[in-house]
Design a protein that fits this description.
With 1011 residues, this protein is α+β, with helices and mostly antiparallel strands. It has five domains: 40-349, YVTN repeat-like/Quinoprotein amine dehydrogenase (Methylamine Dehydrogenase, Chain H); 493-621, YVTN repeat-like/Quinoprotein amine dehydrogenase (Methylamine Dehydrogenase, Chain H); 662-762, Immunoglobulins (Immunoglobulin-like, Sandwich), CATH 2.60.40.10; 767-869; 874-1011, Histidine kinase-like ATPase, C-terminal domain (Heat Shock Protein 90), CATH 3.30.565. Helices cover 19% and strands 38% of the residues. The strands form 17 sheets. A five-stranded mixed sheet has the order 59-65-64-61-62, with no helix packed on it. The chain has a five-stranded mixed sheet with strand order 66-67-68-70-69. α8 packs antiparallel against α10 (971-981). It starts with a helix and ends with a helix.
C-alpha cells in the first residue's frame, strides 16, 4: 500500500462515530490520529515551493515576539508570546484570558504543551499553569523560566527549567498538584538548569543543559559533552530524536564539534556536506517532522532543512518573518509552524508545485516544456535550456553551449533525439551537441511555434517563415513545405495517420495524405488555439480563449462556463494516465474525469462535474507561447505559464480527510458579550444577536465552509459560506438551539458540529399571564363597547319612535281639530238632507252646504298632507318653501301676504331646516285659517343666526290659549316642542288690536353648516 493510500485509510471518516461518540471525544480522536498518522509537508519539495504565510509583529498581530506554539485536542492553536497567550483558529488571533477572571502568573510565555487529556500547559518566565477548559491551575515554583515541556508515552508531563545561582533540579516531573525535580544527585549536571527536552523511541529522556547533553531515565543516566569542549557551553538549545534512536543536538555557538551535531551510538557525528557545514550554525531550535526531515532554526541564518543528505534553506529574503528562529511545531493536519523573533510563519503542502529561479531554474521565462521518456523535464526559455532530472536542475545557457538566446518548441522523437527550436532555427540535441537543420536552400527553418512526430516518423514543424509554413522533416532533411497552412498555430500527431492542427481563428484541421479538412467552430475574441492534443479515445481537444473545442468522430462541441468551467480561457490541455482531462485555465487548474468527458460527449449541454485547483493550491495560471503542457513517464503533469513551471502528480494528490472541530466561541446580544454555556439565558427584549463560531482547519482556512440553523427559528440550514458569525434581529421570547457544522478545505464535513442552547426571557408584557390578561381585557372592552352601542341604538330607535309618536300625535290633533270636525259637520248636513222632505229648495240648500263642507274637508286634508310631505328635503332654500306656503294661504282666504328675505341663503342642517319649515308652515296656516286677518307678513333673515317672523293683523289669540293652547288642539304646543328640540327660541306676542306675531330664532352654530 502506498503512503497516500495508508493516509487515506487512516483518515477515512466513519459514519457511525457521530452516533456513539461525543464531540469532545471526536476531537481527541482526530488529534491522536493526526499525531500518529497524518502527513507532514512533502520533503521532496523545496521549502520555497510550500505555501507560506507570515504574520508579523510590525503588522500589529502580536504585541510581543512569539516564543512557543502548540495545539490542543479541541483543534485550537496556541501561541505563547512575550506579551501573553493567544488562541488562533486560522483566521483570528484572540488574546486569552481565563473565563473565571484569573490571570497568568507572568505575561512572558516561554513554553507550551497541548496534553492528550485536552489540557493546556503554560510555561512562563516565573510560573507554570494548567488550563483544563474549566479552571486555571497555578503551580508553586520559584521565579524561574520554563524552557520546554513534553508528555511522555505514559502521559506523564515533564519540564525543564532555567535556574539561577547554584539552585539544583533542572528536570521536573508533574505529580498531582506539585512537581518533583531531579538534579545532580540524579545524574543530571548543569548549574544553570536545562533548556531543551525530548523523548526518544526507547522512552529515554534527553536533556540539554548549559554544560552537556544527558540521556536519563529514573535510575539510569549518561552524560555527553561534545568533543573539543574545554569550557561550559552557552547552552544546548535544541534536541530532536530520530526513529533510529539517534539524537540531533543543536548549540547556540559555532565551532569545531559544536553547532549542529548528531549523537548516535554514544558518538558525536557533525553534519557536513558540500551544501552545509553544521558546525558553522548557531542553533536555537531543532525539530524532526513526521517525514523524518530535520528542521533547524538558527540565530541569524533563518531555517535549514535536512532530508537525508539534501539541504534546503529559507531566510528573510524568501519571505521568512525573521532570521532568528525560536520554535517549530507540526499541527494535526501536517502544517509546520515557526515562531521567530518578529512573527509567526506557517508552511504547508501545495498540490501544484512551482519551479522558478528560486528552485534552481536559470531562465526567468518558461516558454515551453517537454517530459522525455527517461523522466527528464526540459524547459525552454530565454537564454537557457534547463533540465530537471531526479530533482536536480541543470542548464545549457546562451554563450555556454546554447547556440542562440530563445528556446521555443521542444520534441523528443522516436529515437530519443531532442528537437529544439532556438531563435529562428531548429536543432537536434544529443550527447551534449547541437546539430542544426535547415531548409533545402540553406535558409533557417524560422521561429518554431509547434512540433510533433506522426506514426510514420515524420516530424512536422510549424514555423513563422516568412511566410508561416508547415514543414515535414524526416531526419535530417526537410522533405516538404506546405505554405498554404499559414493559419495553423499548434500541431499534434494523429495516432492513425497524419496530423491535427489548431488554427489561429479557433478552428481545428486535419491533414493526411496530402489533403486538409477544416472543422469550423463558432468564434469570438481570443479564439486562437493555444494547445492541441489527441486523447486516448481518439477525440481531439483544443485549448482556446473561448473554451475547450473538441472533435470526436465528426461531432464538434465546445466546453465552456455554461458546462461548469470556472472560466473560458484555456491555456493548455493534457490527459493523465487515468484518462482524466486537465485544463490549465486562466482561473485555475481543472480536472475532468474520463467518465465525465464521455458524458459531455453524449450530452453537450450537460454540467460537467469537475475539480478545481486554485491559487490556494499553488496554481499560477499563464500562457506559454510555444508549448504549455506535458506528461512525464511517472504520471506527473507539467505546465509552463511563461514565467515559471508548475507540476502536479494526479496519482498522489494529497487531500485532507480530517473533519474540522467546530466550536461556538461567543455570543453578543445588544453589544454585550456572553460566554457560551449550556442553557445560556439572554435578557428580555434582545434585538441584535450575534453568534460567533469557528472551525479549526489550518491548511486553507479561507476554504472552510459553514452551515448553521437556529432551531425554533430557521426551517432549513443557512449557507453563510466562510463567514464565521450568525446574526438575528427578530427573536421572540423562548428557547432556541443553535447548530453549526463545517467542512475543511477538501469538503469533508463535520456533520456533528457544535451546538448552543439558549433562551430569550420574556418582558413583562410578553409573558403568558399578560397575554391572558390582554385577552380578557379585550373581551371586556368589546363587551362594554357592545353594550354601549346597544344602548346607543336603543336610544336612537326610541328617539325615532318618540319623534314618530309626537308627529302622529300632532297629526292626530290636526286631523281632529280640522279635518274630522269638517267631516262631522258634513255628515250632519248629509243627515239633514236625507230626512224625508218634499221641499226641493231645502234639499238644494242642504246639498250646497254639504258641498261647502266637503270642499273645506278637502282643503284641510290637503293641508295635513302638505305638512307631512312639503319638506325642504330637495332644496336648501327655506324662502322658496315658505313662498309656496303663503300662496296656499291666499288660495284659502282673501288675505294680503307680504314675504321678505334678508341676507343670502346658507347651507343648513337638513333635519333642523325641516323643523324650521314645519314651525313656519304651522304659523302661516294658523294665520290664514283662524286669525281673520286681512294682512299677513312673513320675514326670513339669514344673519349670524336664522330668524323667522310670521305676523298678522287679525283678532289675536286669547292669552290663556296662547299660554296653554286650546283644549283639543295641538298646533301651538307642537310648534313649541319642535323649537325646543332643535335648540331654537320661539316667542309669541298677540293682542286683539295688533294681531299676532310669532318669532323663531335658531343659533347659527346649530343650523348653519361650516365650510
Amino acid at each position: 500500500m502506498s503512503l497516500l493510500e495508508r493516509r487515506r485509510a487512516n483518515f477515512a471518516p466513519r459514519t457511525d462515530r457521530s452516533n456513539i461518540l461525543s464531540r469532545h471525544f471526536l476531537s481527541l480522536l482526530f488529534f491522536l490520529f493526526a499525531v500518529s498518522s497524518a502527513w507532514a509537508v512533502d520533503p521532496s519539495l523545496h521549502i520555497s515551493q510550500y505555501a507560506h504565510t507570515a504574520w508579523r509583529i510590525q503588522d500589529g498581530i502580536f504585541s510581543g515576539a512569539p516564543n512557543a506554539i502548540t495545539q490542543t485536542t479541541d483543534g485550537y492553536l496556541w501561541i505563547g508570546t512575550k506579551a501573553g497567550l493567544f488562541r488562533f483558529d486560522g483566521v483570528r488571533f484572540v488574546p486569552w484570558t481565563s473565563p473565571d477572571g484569573k490571570h497568568l502568573p507572568s505575561s512572558n510565555v516561554t513554553s507550551l504543551l497541548g496534553a492528550r487529556d485536552g489540557s493546556l500547559w503554560i510555561g512562563m518566565e516565573g510560573g507554570l499553569s494548567r488550563w483544563d477548559k474549566r479552571d486555571l491551575i497555578d503551580y508553586e515554583i520559584k521565579p524561574e523560566r520554563i524552557n520546554a515541556m513534553i508528555e511522555d508515552h505514559n502521559g506523564t508531563v515533564w519540564l525543564v527549567r532555567a535556574l539561577g545561582g547554584n539552585v539544583d533540579g533542572g528536570l521536573c516531573q508533574v505529580i498531582g498538584p506539585g512537581l518533583r525535580c531531579y538534579g545532580k544527585a540524579d545524574g543530571i549536571p548543569g548549574s544553570a538548569g536545562a533548556s531543551s527536552l525530548v523523548e526518544d523511541t526507547l522512552g529515554n529522556l534527553w536533556i540539554g543543559t548549559d554544560t552537556a547533553v544527558v540521556r536519563w531515565r529514573p535510575g539510569s543516566s549518561s552524560t555527553y559533552i561534545p568533543k573539543g569542549l574545554n569550557s561550559g557551553l552557552d547552552g544546548v538549545n535544541g534536541l530532536a530524536a530520530n526513529p533510529d534512536g539517534s539524537v540531533w543536538v543543536g548549540m547556540d555557538i559555532a565551532g569545531p564539534g559544536l553547532g549542529l551535531q548528531q549523537l548516535s551510538q554514544d558518538a558525536w557525528k557533525p553534519f557536513a556536506n558540500s551544501e552545509l557545514d553544521g558546525t558553522t550554525l548557531k542553533v536555537q531550535a531543532l525539530f524532526v517532522d513526521r517525514e523524518n526531515a530535520l528542521w533547524i532554526g538558527t540565530a541569524t541564518k533563518g531555517i535549514y532543512r535536512i532530508v537525508g543528505r539534501t539541504v534546503d534553506h529559507i531566510y528573510t529574503a524568501d519571505g521568512l518573518s525573521s532570521d532568528s528562529v525560536y520554535w517549530f511545531y507540526e499541527d494535526r493536519e501536517g502544517d509546520l509552524w515557526v515562531a521567530t523573533s518578529k512573527g509567526l510563519d506557517c508552511f504547508r503542502d501545495v498540490r501544484v508545485a512551482s519551479f522558478s529561479t528560486r528552485e534552481g531554474l536559470s531562465t526567468p521565462e518558461v516558454d515551453s516544456v517537454l517530459a522525455a521518456r527517461d523522466g527528464t523535464v526540459w524547459i525552454g526559455g530565454e537564454d537557457s535550456l534547463d533540465a530537471i532530472h531526479q530533482d536536480q536542475v541543470s542548464s545549457v545557457q546562451s554563450g555556454k553551449g546554447l547556440p542562440g538566446s530563445q528556446v521555443t518548441a521542444l520534441l523528443e522523437d522516436h529515437a530519443g533525439r531532442l528537437w529544439i527550436g532556438i531563435d529562428n532555427t531548429m536543432s537536434i540535441y544529443k550527447n551534449g551537441r547541437f546539430t542544426r537543420i535547415d531548409r533545402p536552400d540553406g535558409r533557417p527553418i524560422g521561429v518554431v511555434f509547434g512540433i510533433t512526430e506522426d506514426v510514420d516518423n515524420n516530424v512536422w514543424i510549424l514555423t513563422s517563415g516568412p511566410p508561416r509554413t508547415l514543414l515535414r522533416v524526416q531526419y535530417p532533411k526537410v522533405q516538404e513545405e506546405l505554405p498554404q497552412m499559414r493559419g495553423a498555430a499548434r500541431v499534434a500527431a494523429d495516432p492513425e495517420v497524419g496530423i491535427w492542427l489548431g488554427l489561429i481563428n479557433g478552428d481545428l484541421a486535419r491533414y493526411r495524405r496530402g489533403g486538409a479538412e477544416i472543422f469550423p467552430f463558432k468564434h469570438e475574441e481570443n479564439s486562437r488555439v493555444n494547445h492541441i492534443i489527441v486523447s486516448s479515445d481518439g477525440s481531439v481537444l483544443g485549448a482556446t480563449g473561448d473554451g475547450l473545442v473538441g472533435w470526436n468522430n465528426g461531432k464538434l462541441q465546445t466546453l465552456t462556463v455554461k458546462n461548469g468551467l470556472p472560466c473560458d480561457f484555456v491555456n493548455a490541455v493534457i490527459e493523465d494516465n487515468n484518462r482524466a482531462t486537465w485544463l490549465y485555465t486562466q482561473c485555475g487548474l481543472v480536472e475532468i474525469t474520463g467518465t465525465e468527458m464521455q458524458r459531455w460527449w453524449g450530452q453537450p449541454d450537460t454540467t460537467v462535474q469537475l475539480k478545481i485547483f486554485d491559487a490556494f493550491d499553488g496554481v499560477q495560471p499563464g500562457r506559454a507561447p510555444f508549448g504549455g503542457a506535458t506528461k512525464a513517464p511517472d504520471g506527473r503533469l507539467w505546465f509552463a505559464n511563461g514565467v515559471l513551471l508548475q507540476t502536479i502528480d494526479p496519482d498522489h494528490v494529497s487531500w485532507n480527510a480530517l473533519p474540522p472541530p467546530v466550536h461556538v466561541e461567543g455570543v453578543i446580544a445588544d453589544r454585550k458579550n456572553y460566554s457560551p454555556r449550556h442553557d445560556l439565558p439572554l435578557p428580555p427584549l434582545t434585538h441584535d444577536l450575534e453568534i460567533d463560531y469557528t472551525a479549526l482547519s489550518f491548511p486553507i482556512p479561507q476554504k472552510v465552509r459553514f452551515r448553521y440553523k437556529l432551531e425554533g427559528r430557521d426551517a432549513v440550514w443557512q449557507e453563510p459560506g466562510a463567514r464565521r458569525q450568525a446574526f438575528y434581529s427578530d427573536l421572540h421570547p423562548g428557547k432556541y438551539r443553535f447548530r453549526v457544522i463545517a467542512c475543511n478545505n477538501d469538503g469533508v464535513w463535520n456533520e456533528q458540529g457544535a451546538s448552543l442552547d439558549f433562551s430569550v426571557a420574556p418582558a413583562w408584557f410578553q409573558t403568558n399571564w399578560f397575554r391572558i390578561l390582554c385577552v380578557l381585557s379585550g373581551i371586556l372592552v368589546v363587551w362594554v363597547i357592545y353594550r354601549l352601542r346597544v344602548r346607543q341604538i336603543a336610544r336612537a330607535i326610541s328617539a325615532r319612535f318618540d319623534e314618530r309618536l309626537a308627529e302622529r300625535t300632532r297629526l292626530a290633533r290636526d286631523l281632529h281639530d280640522t279635518f274630522l270636525q269638517t267631516i262631522q259637520g258634513s255628515k250632519l248636513v248629509a243627515d239633514d238632507a236625507l230626512e224625508p222632505s218634499t221641499d226641493p229648495i231645502r234639499m238644494r240648500r242642504a246639498m250646497e252646504q254639504l258641498s261647502v263642507w266637503l270642499g273645506r274637508a278637502t282643503q284641510e286634508g290637503r293641508a295635513a298632507l302638505n305638512s307631512l310631505r312639503s319638506a325642504t328635503a330637495h332644496t336648501n332654500d327655506l324662502a322658496e318653501a315658505f313662498q309656496r306656503a303663503t300662496e296656499e294661504c291666499r288660495m284659502q282666504s282673501p288675505i294680503e301676504v307680504s314675504f321678505s328675505v334678508v341676507g343670502d341663503a346658507k347651507e343648513m342642517h337638513p333635519v333642523i331646516r325641516d323643523e324650521v319649515y314645519r314651525i313656519g308652515y304651522e304659523a302661516i296656516r294658523n294665520a290664514c285659517m283662524h286669525s281673520g286677518a286681512g294682512r299677513l307678513e312673513v320675514a326670513l333673515s339669514y344673519a349670524e343666526d336664522l330668524t323667522l317672523r310670521v305676523s298678522d293683523n287679525g283678532t289675536g289669540i286669547d292669552p290663556a290659549i296662547a299660554d296653554r293652547g286650546k283644549e283639543g288642539h295641538f298646533g301651538l304646543q307642537g310648534m313649541r316642542e319642535r323649537a325646543t328640540r332643535i335648540g331654537g327660541k320661539l316667542t309669541l306676542r298677540s293682542s286683539s288690536s295688533s294681531g299676532t306675531e310669532i318669532r323663531l330664532m335658531i343659533p347659527g352654530s346649530i343650523i348653519f353648516r361650516k365650510r
